[in-house]
Amino acid sequence: MRLQDITSSRPALLLAMACARLLPRRAGYALARGAARLIAWRRPEIYRTVRTNMQHVVGCGADDALLDQMAYNVFRYAGQGYYDFFRAVGQPHSALLQKVEPPSAFLEMIRSENAQGRGVLVVATHMSNFDLVGLVLSYEGLSAQLLSLADPGPAFRILNRLRATDGFEVTPIGPESLRMALRRLANGGVVVTGADRPMMEEREWVEFFGQPAELPLGPVRLALMTGATVIVGSCYYHEDGIYRVRADGPVEMVRTGRKRHDIMASARRLAAVLEEHVRAYPDQWLMFHRVWPDDSRCGAEPVQPQPSPEDQEP
Questions:
Q1: Would strands 144-148 and 243-248 be described as parallel, antiparallel, or unpaired?
Q2: What are the average pLDDT values for consecutive 10-residue runs of the chain, which has 314 residues?
Q3: How far apart are CA 244 and CA 236, in angstroms?
Q4: What's the pTM value of the predicted model, to 2 decimals?
Q5: Thinking of the domain 94-281, which architecture would CATH place it in?
Q6: DSSP of 199-254, one letter per residue?
């Protein structure tokens, strides 16, 4: 059995939730570091996938030591993020704001578009603790439909129940949920989806960090069909222990009347913004799936990532 199958299983998730609720932050973060060290030592398939993704992001000039450190950081940030998210579920708004800076500018962008009758498609990256930010946004009064992974397994179904707070409706991607999203956007509502994770249903290639990648085309199709405003949102963990939100937009879609051209050109435009968000803190990109094909070569120029916080006691 692969490590990824174990860590994404229902028993593992329930164990992680129990640890988060029982352990103080210092112990929870220490456990995350220990798990990341174990994964980096064993170097299972999921570790190699993350390391390959990092090489595409920072460039072929990155040495082995840097890539190993970045891959370790990805798993450490993931562990810390899950600890903070599981511990935050059910806590009052005031407690969440001790870990997340109020995303006031992000909310203002959304509300400004809604006030003009336009739907908003939030394209969220898999950066840092995006689930924790979702809790804060729901407390701030944001109402949205969240398009999640199609056909989720038992562990993902539990995660989706945790994500489904007041105002947030979590719907696995499928024909009915996509029709719901189209109606919501056409009626001036908000839909949240991702665009940096490969989808089995998609067979088109989009340039991402200089190489063709299997990025989903669904988000740009939704935007083009509804005229919704597209905003890209990310969450980053900072050295002071606070999560902060970055939002960029509107990302203008290409509308020439040539359907396929507009989809592919808009997808490339969206991917360029996603690159900026990932490049800011590449080792906080929690992408555990191979984004580029096995036979591709990393084509980006070497880019040194911004310094990440060292292992620190919270």
A1: unpaired
A2: 62 92 96 97 96 94 95 98 96 95 97 98 97 95 94 87 88 96 98 89 83 94 98 97 97 97 98 98 97 68 45 48
A3: 5
A4: 0.91
A5: 3-Layer(aba) Sandwich (3.40)
A6: -TT----EEETTEEE---SHHHHHHHHHT-EEEEEEEEE-TTS-EEEEEE---PPP
